[in-house]
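Changelog-linked ticket: adenosine monophosphate example.
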Amino acid sequence: MEIVSTVSDARKIIKEWKKKGLKTGLVPTMGYLHEGHLSLIKKAVSENDRVVVSIFVNPTQFGPGEDYETYPRDINKDSALCESAGADLIFHPEASEMYPDGSCTYVNMTGLTDALCGRSRPTHFQGVCTVVSKLFNIITPDNAYFGMKDAQQLAVIKRMVSDLNFDINIVGCPIIRESDGLAKSSRNTYLNAEERKAALILQKSIFFGESLVKKGERDAAFVINSMKEIIESEPLAKIDYVEIVDMNTMKNVSVIQGEILCAIAVYIGKTRLIDNFILNIC
Ligand code: AMP
C-alpha cells in the first residue's frame, strides 16, 4: 500500500492502473477510521481491482464554530487499518493541496440540501459536493462507496453524479453500530462516560420509530413525536431535528409511503450525533 499527499502523485499511480485496465474503487473519508469506514473499504476491495481511501478533514464542509480544528486525526493508525483491510493507496492531502490560493470554484446544490443537516449546517453540503467532485476528478474511480449513516449525503452525492454526469457508480453501505447499538462515528470519541451512556437515546428512538412503522404506523407526525418524547427523556440530549422525508427529494412527508428516510440529529452535551433508518413502504 502506498500513501501519497499530492494530486500529481495520485494521478501518476491511477494512470498506470488505467493502462492495465484495472477497476478502481474510492472510499472518501475524513480519517480516524473505525469499523464503519472499514466496512466500506472491505466492500470496495471485494468489488474492485484497486482501492483508494482518501483521508482528508475537509475544511470547507465545517461551519464557523464547528469542530474542524479539534476533529480527531491519526494517520499512522489509519494507514495500518487501511492496509489490513486491503486498500492499495491512501490519498492524504493537506488543505493547501486541495484548495490552493485562488481556488474559487464550488459545487452547489439546491433542494436536497435545504433539509435536515443542510438546514442546520448551511454551508456543509457545498463543501461536501465540492470536495467529492474534486476527489472524483483526481481519482476517476469506477465505483465510490458512501455510508448510509450519512443518508442525506448519500442522496446528495447520487444526485450530483446524475446531474453532473460523473461516470461513477455510487454504492451505499449499511450503518455499522457498536455492540450496544450506537452508530459508530469518529465523533463518539468526544463523549465522556456519562455522555456515552446518554448517547444510546439516539438508537433507542431510531429503533422505536422503525418498529412503529414496521408495525403499520403511517402517520409521520405521530412517529416523529413518539421519537422526540424518547429523546427528551434524556437530560443530556438536545434535539436538533427529528424528521421523516422522501428519500429521493428530502421533502417532509405526512403519510409514510414509498422510500422514506427518518433522520435525527441530537446534541449530547456539545457533541452533535446523527442516526437514521430507511424503509421502503409499498
Ligand atoms: P467520515 O469520515 O465521517 O466523513 O465518513 C466517511 C464515510 O464513512 C462516509 O461515507 C460515512 O457515511 C461512512 N461512515 C461513517 N460512519 C459509518 C458507520 N457507522 N457505518 C457505515 N458507514 C459509516
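Closing comment: Example verified and attached. The beta strands are 2-4, 24-29, 50-55, 89-91, 143-147, 169-173, 237-246, 258-268, 271-281. Residues 29-30, 36-37, 39-40, 146-147, 149-150, 173, 175-176, 183-186 surround adenosine monophosphate (CB under 6 Å).
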